[in-house]
Amino acid sequence: MKIGQTTYREIGKQMFAAESKNLMRRVVGENVWLNRENVEIEKVFARPTIEPYKYEVLETEEAVGRAMLEELKTVVGEKSGDATMILLGGRGAQAMYRQIYRAIPTGELDEMLARLHVFTQDALAPLKMNNGLSFVRDFERLLGAEFFRRVKNFTPMQTDTGNLENEMVKYLEKLDALGGIDLFFLGLGPEANAASHLAYIKPDSGATRSDVAGIIPISQTILEHHIGKFKAGGSEIIETDEAETRRATHILTLAPAAILGAKRVVQSIVDASTAPAKRESFRRVLDTEISGDLEIRARQLDENPGLWLRLHPNVRTLVLPDLIEV
Question: Distance between CA atoms of 39 and 289, rounded to whole angstroms?
Fold first, then answer.
């Protein structure tokens, strides 16, 4: 696959070749996955019975945001020490972010924020960190600079580095040192044939249950989806930032093992009105019968990564009525 006259393999080996004591490098086509064996993840993947997928319909985006914020308060409140949260980019969590922004001047969230380690879940790369189409800039716009001063720590995926893999290894090692993910906020992205992506785990990208993170080639579909959802969410985009974004070559993303290993997952889907393809994608996630044959199950999940959440034992899905309209 080419970007202009340059193939992905010609971009430069200096961007890759990570070194880590507990992570192995696996290449599937043009996709690089960082993986490790985990007995507990294997148990989650191999669950013999996959229950019907449950979801809650709330009437407004603000109600979804309140429910998400209550989940965050609960997760932090139930821990004796610090807690680790994965931020959701795009539209899905914007209502929660607005509510946090309004509450910060009152100080009512200070105790919670002071115990919160905040991470991002995906990013386009290479991309300057001050690009208005980076998730970091969008988080700053929505949450405000004061949020990032009050949290215990903020760790974005580094997108303007010459060695993407090594930066991902550092990111994962920091997550590990904090004890893993306490709360993972996720959305659902539409794909062709009513498939879907989680974070930026794409259909047929070869991601498996042992993969913790990936560095995958970008497609025009993803670029258009990324830019479109930022514009739909109210971001003001300057031409130079959009042009740089369209030159991005890879996506950094957390992978299935990170999702399955999270202690709690909260999924929100609030933008079916602006991304109507999500209706069919969500319906396919709901209706798919996940096979008891683990080889077939692995193929199903690779073909439609939205199904990974069907395996998680502690997930809550919040949607608006327009997602399930016929």
Answer: 25
pLDDT tens, residue by residue, 81-123? 999 999 998 889 999 999 999 999 999 999 999 999 999 999 9
* Cα radius of gyration rounded to whole Å, the chain: 19
The answer to whether 158 touches 166, Cβ cutoff 8 Å, is: no
Model pTM score: 0.90
pLDDT of residue 324: 92
* Sequence-distant (≥ 6) Cβ neighbours of residue 307 within 8 angstroms: 285, 288, 290, 300, 301
306 in Cβ contact with 188 (< 8 Å): yes
Instruction: Provide the residue ranges of all domains of the chain, joining segments of one domain with +.
Output: 22-323
- Which CATH code for domain 22-323? 3.40.50.1360
Instruction: Give the up-direction half-sphere exposure of residue 280: CA atoms within 13 A in the CB hemisphere.
Output: 9
Does residue 188 contact residue 285 with C-beta atoms inside 8 Å?
yes
Q: Phi, psi at residue 168, to the nearest 5°?
A: -65, -35
| Cβ neighbours, 10 Å, residue 201 | 29
